[in-house]
Design a protein that fits this description.
single chain; two-stranded antiparallel ribbon
């Protein structure tokens, strides 16, 4: 499938979380939750270090990561559920002494690759019966901002969260159309 990947709907996010919790897959649950909360590109997500999310033995409420594409910092909130899943993952024996939040299985690979992350994400999507070609790692980046836009109609907030320099990029990214603008106008009574 060519073109933009779809964002996940809230019911999809819930279904994936439930499956990962039932399977007691602490790494994937933490990875999924942080992917949704951080809105980071896959290449930046897999390179995250423990110090990016932890300070003084506690998972931070907010974090900041330097984007590799733009070299600009991205700030994001780590929700309570995500903090709990990351904390659980941090207690895993695989994490002992790891500098990276998502360590690779082999010593020559310090963290999982973006390719491995894509395979993991494909597994999440297929586990709930969605068409895997319609979704990808970028679906995780789009999910939260799409919901923010749908609930608030605030393009500027989405632009800031994604660290887009141009509003046009944000409009294209979200696929905002005339129908969306008309729906927002209809919802307002003046």
């Amino acid at each position: 499938m060519v073109g933009q990947k779809r964002s996940l709907k809230p019911k999809h996010v819930w279904a994936i979380r439930v499956r990962l919790e039932l399977a007691e897959n602490h790494r994937d649950l933490a990875l999924f939750n942080l992917a949704i909360d951080s809105k980071l590109r896959g290449c930046d997500l897999v390179r995250m270090k423990v110090v990016d999310v932890m300070a003084s033995g506690q998972i931070k409420e907010r974090a900041s990561v330097l984007q590799s594409k733009t070299q600009k910092p991205v700030r994001f909130e780590i929700s309570e559920g995500t903090r709990a899943s990351v904390e659980k993952w941090m207690k895993d024996p695989l994490m002992i002494g790891s500098e990276y939040l998502w360590p690779g299985r082999f010593h020559e690979r310090l963290h999982i690759s973006t390719r491995q992350y894509a395979r993991i994400a494909r597994g999440w999507v297929s586990s709930i019966g969605l068409e895997v070609t319609a979704y990808g790692t970028h679906s995780m980046r789009r999910t939260k901002v799409t919901q923010i836009y749908k609930k608030t109609g605030n393009l500027r907030a989405v632009q800031l969260l994604l660290v887009h320099t141009k509003m046009d990029s944000t409009v294209r990214y979200l696929g905002v159309e005339l129908e969306d603008a008309l729906a927002i106008c209809e919802a307002l009574e003046i």
